[in-house]
Predict the structure.
Amino acid sequence: MVTHAGKVALITGASRGIGRGCALKLAALGADVVVNYRSHGDEAEAVAEQIRAKGRECITVGADIGVRAEVERLVAAAMARFGRIDLLINNAALTIRKYFVDLTVEEIERVLAVSLWGAIHTTHVVAPHMIARGEGGRVVVIGSVHATTPFGGSLPYNVAKGALNLFSLTLARELAPHQITVNVVEPGWIDTHGERELTPPERIQELGKALPLGRVGTVDDVANAVAY
């Protein structure tokens, strides 16, 4: 059985959706958790309360991972509280559903700042702590099938996820001597709060019937892969 007892997990974008599911799953497997959020502090604290109810320690840290200074503050808070980060889950992402020619430069830059640079910044700050401690570590990037399967109306997001695949493959080679692994989990269509803001639940269920399993994926599907 997989266990993360005694480990500390930092999860970006963990107030809802896939990040929330990962936070709860890792806590159930024994990890203490740092729940990062940007604009849903009340939901982040609700996740933290569930984690504490499982007997694990948890702090919530509001930080925009698209901004380097805020990432540094996030990691500093985690280190100040726990003194270590064993598991880094780069989950936070942003998409704007518009066709490329209709996007503003600011919208393109914002999506890339969060969905690509957020993971780069966070890993760049956390990895030296893992290396210095000398006990290995785990980095997991939440990617997307759209890294290789184009989805119209989401070009900056697709580009970010494609870039993160090569980022992770290269980083895995560099960090392997330190016993730090880097993996990408590529969800397909997942039934999340964010997805329901874009697609009515009944439509999600209807379209899901055409998929091989006869349904769309769930947050638990992804969380279980991450925990493994």
